[in-house]
Design brief:
By secondary structure, the protein is α+β, with helices and mostly antiparallel strands. It has helices spanning 14-24, 77-80, 90-97, 126-141, 175-178, 183-200, 213-235, 246-256, and strands at residues 2-3, 6-11, 33-39, 53-59, 115-117, 148-154, 165-170, 206-210, 239-240, 262-267, 274-279. Among the domains are: 1-65; 215-279, Ribosomal Protein S8, Chain: A, domain 1 (2-Layer Sandwich), CATH 3.30.1370.50. It contains 8 helices and 11 strands. Strands 1-2-4-3 form a 4-stranded antiparallel sheet. Strands 5-6-7-8 form a 4-stranded mixed sheet, with helices on both faces.
């Protein structure tokens, strides 16, 4: 279904639906549209009741030609945050939440470790250079006053590809940028990654934070996971945590993966998906 400058598309994942819509609008860039997620994908139960992702793309300007080295005017995140694109498909969620020995310890995990500010430009790779430019332009379009982007990375880096760059935004009055339970901040991170990955032609391993919000919440969730695990083993009952977005559930999984007395599982659908801690 479409109208002038607007189109609805479906796909197995939100990203696939967006890609189809961009093609149907004439091959426009992600920065030429505002994306509204109408329905998250669902695999259903035993293949029954499955439904695809459904999105609406609204063309908000006439696309202009751009070169791979320039970043065009980005999506105005502040205006579209209530309907911003967020969660990936269930298969991706389950892969990211895995807490077995073969887990890929990437996004969010290093936020639990000591982070080191990187001030030497020679230590920055292309990914973080491009992402910083993209994020700066997004903040400018959002009219965030006097933002400063501080670049950090985990001090202990065993695998460069598995340790994301952390772009921490500092400045006055950042509550609106963070949003309710970090929803606006997550939308900003998604769009920063989307544009950066398009410029780089590969996935940009970037985490966007504001005033240390994600780092503080990561430590809080880590401590909460330990307390709830102790409660589960003491009472010999399963403990269910509150619904959380994927990266927060992963923090809980990783915090308890080395404990032999409990195991963690994600249960529920969509925004109601949460972690349960089960005593062994």
């Amino acid at each position: 279904m479409s109208s002038e400058g607007s189109i609805e598309t479906t796909g197995e994942s939100v990203e696939e639906a967006i890609s189809k819509g961009l093609v149907e609008l004439g091959g426009v860039a992600p920065t030429d549209v505002i994306v509204e997620v109408l329905e998250e994908p669902s695999r259903g139960m035993f293949g029954l009741g499955a439904r695809p992702a459904r999105v609406r793309l609204q063309l908000f300007r006439t696309p202009a030609a751009s070169t791979p080295t320039s970043v065009s005017a980005p999506v105005p995140v502040a205006a579209s945050a209530p309907v911003a694109v967020s969660n990936p498909s269930r298969d991706k969620q389950e892969q990211e939440e895995a807490f077995t020995a073969e887990v890929d310890e990437d996004e969010g995990i290093s936020l639990l470790e000591d982070m080191q500010e990187i001030t030497d430009d020679a230590l920055l790779d292309e990914d973080v250079r491009v992402a910083k430019v993209v994020l700066g332009e997004l903040l400018d379009k959002m009219e965030i006053l006097r933002p400063v982007i501080i670049i950090r990375r985990a001090i202990k880096v065993e695998d460069g590809d598995g340790n994301p760059w952390l772009l921490d935004i500092t400045g006055p009055n950042l509550n609106a940028l963070i949003g309710r339970r970090g929803e606006t901040l997550n939308a900003l991170q998604y769009i920063t990654r989307l544009i950066s990955s398009r410029e780089l032609q590969h996935r940009a391993n970037i985490v966007v934070d504001a005033a240390g919000y994600k780092a503080k919440r990561s430590r809080m969730l880590h401590d909460l996971a330990l307390r709830m695990a102790d409660q589960a083993t003491r009472t010999k009952r399963t403990v269910a945590l509150e619904p959380m977005p994927p990266y927060e559930r992963r923090i809980v999984h990783m915090a308890l993966r080395s404990r032999a007395d409990v195991q963690t599982k994600s249960v529920g659908e969509g925004n109601s998906r949460k972690v349960t801690i089960v005593p062994r």
